[in-house]
What we know:
With about 290 residues, this protein is of the alpha/beta class. It is built from 13 helices and eight strands. The protein has helices at about 5-15, 25-30, 40-55, 65-70, 70-90, 100-115, 135-145, 160-165, 175-190, 210-215, 235-245, 255-260, 265-285; strands at about 20-25, 60, 90-100, 125, 150-155, 200-205, 225-230, 250-255.
Amino acid sequence: xxxxxxxxxxxxMDGLGPLCVGIDPHATLLDAWGLADDAAGVRExxxxxxxxxxxxxxxxxxxxxxxxxxxxxxxxxxxxxxxxARAAGTLTIVDAKRGDIGSTMAGYADAxxxxxxxxxxxxxxxxxxxxxGSLTPAADLAARTGRGIFVLCLTSNKEGHxxxxxVGRDGVSVAASVAAQAAVLNAGPVSDGEPMGSVGLVVGAxxxxxxxxxxxxxxxxxxxxLAPGVGAQGAGERELAAVFGAARRxxxxxxxxxxxxxxxxxxxxxxxxxxxxxxxxxALRG
Length: 286
Ligand SMILES: O=c1ccn([C@@H]2O[C@H](COP(=O)(O)O)[C@@H](O)[C@H]2O)c(=O)[nH]1
């Protein structure tokens, strides 16, 4: 029986540093890497990243959008990249941001979290804006298969506050409510001795004091935080430390373009990942 995702992620972060490298084959990067902007190009791009960095970083985060834009062949390319990451022994968080009514959510859960599904990595990103409870089929299947979910909470983009800072009739902000519901799902595994639960939150490294502003208790979540925004979006050591405070040990910082811009040379990618890992380790483990 595989260990739960939260336990496997904690071990990977302790061993390799709390860095996730995003696999985002933007058209401009494909061009810079001498690859075509088509399904074969995104496949080759992803496989080169896995080849250069597999076993050297805690996790990969392929961005589904850049594969899906090439239709069924692009989705097949994403499946190949996920399989390559698994073969390299590196955890994979598929950044698909799915969310729908519960009955449809069960279909997304089967796609991204079921054993044997070619689109299933180790975890998937989910959107809670149809109601946190609508994600139950995914949370349940993840728990059964030892996988994880990362639920959007305080996203790195400047528009996120319109929804996430909104306050309900109970006086609780949307972000705080998402975090509190994730904490409930993590309570069992943590009381059973797991280092953290497998229900994570996406909290951007760029959000400044948004957690305090929205009354979001990050320290109480006891799950992993996926923190995009490092590198190309401008966040670094200082911003990470400021956003997460006492919760920082559970943070997996994520950088895509900040590392990928150093490719396609594998040594360039490895150097950039090493630099990024040093920076986020200083912020989160210092
Ligand atoms: O709040 C969020 C949630 C997800 N992302 C994703 O992370 C990467 C960021 O890429 P960079 O090149 O490091 O800026 C991208 O796939 C986003 O969709 C995010 O940025 N913010």
